[in-house]
Amino acid sequence: MxxxxxxLDREDGLETVLEVPIPEETFTxxxxxxxxxxxxxxxxxxxxxxxxxxxxxxxxxxxxxxIQLLLGVVGAPLIPLPISSTQPISQNIxxxxxxxxxxxxxxxxxxAATGGEKALNSIDSMYAMxxxxxxxxxxxxxxxMSLGCNSLxxxxxxxxxxxxxxxxxxxxxxxxxxxxxxxxxxxxxMVSGCKISAGSDGKVAWRQTPWHNSxxxxxxxxxxxxxxxxxxxxxxxxxxxxxxxxGEKTINDEDCFVLKLEAEPSALRARSSSNVEIxxxxxxxxxxxxxxxxxxxxxxxxLRIKASPENGAHDSVFWETTMESHIQDYRTIDxxxxxxxxxxxxxxxxxxESSESHSRTRMEEVWEIEEVDFNIRGLSMDCFLPPGDLxxxxxxxxxxxxxxxxGNVHLGFKIRAGPSRVGVKKVVAIDVDDSKKINxxxxxxx
Length: 446
What we know:
By secondary structure, the chain is an alpha+beta fold. It has nine helices and 18 strands. InterPro entries: DUF620 (IPR006873).
């Protein structure tokens, strides 16, 4: 990972420290410094300067539109429930149903495998730097598409097989994550020159991108899903301490216990709005019976976008999102067992309206952790402050609020029947966390 930007215009010029490190893969020709420097400048070129010249994508928009879609879905998703930093790790396994007692016992084994309660309690803050590679793997749309997630009907509509990160292609990027507690975190992720920032100050979780104004998540602040992909064992243990054990399953030839956690109806209502209803959000954790470590994290949520009669729509649209993260390469850092690599597969399924508007999109991400450190000195609350325009946006939206976030929100796409193209705003806005107030002119697909 490159952390410094060389100054080739002036030999005596100082190097610039990059906000987000750039992967070495960006430098396609290490023997030619000038060419490598041009590659870097093109990679970090502002998003607005590149949108007009980007090559077309498989979705009918630009390559920048594809990157928007990847970052909006895979970049900074949140866990469905808030996690308290004051909650004790060890809990009494007695006086509970057998499924709950088994889950608490499995979590205790996980705590021991990741370093023990004393070591986890000694962590005050955390820093991680890593690289990612994202890509689409499949897009299916049209009549005849099966409503199941794993099968297709006989009359398949539009099918596209795209690039795969396993074949060495995809959008390359890097990220930096700072965290002081599950509700205090800040992420900066840059992929192919497009940057997304997200964070939580303990009161509100927010997200900022070059193509959208800063906006806040509805409901109480929640942890970053990326942290629970093997980087924050304490938060993982606290999350699954209230789960139930539903059985066993073999994951990559590893026998695992399966723990399941459902978001409470009250939590779902807090995240819903007048035109978006979160029907369910479920998390599964797969813990190795041999090592006690978390080897797979999976979550799925279902949204219902209510029809707007003024737009000529009468049927609601449903979005189902499933994320499956395979976690591997555990290494001990300061007595804590931390995962240093993994892969996330995402499936987006849209149905409702007419059958020809049904679609399924698959994405994937591979990540590697380059650096991890704990108990960062000088990490103050100022590092987790939301963007300055976030408060202005909230004040500009009328109506009631839930959890300090304006309740008068609209999704970034129209609900309508007929053939469907997968526009960026359609998929980026499938989570109500990304709902925001926009103008009617912005509702059209890219």
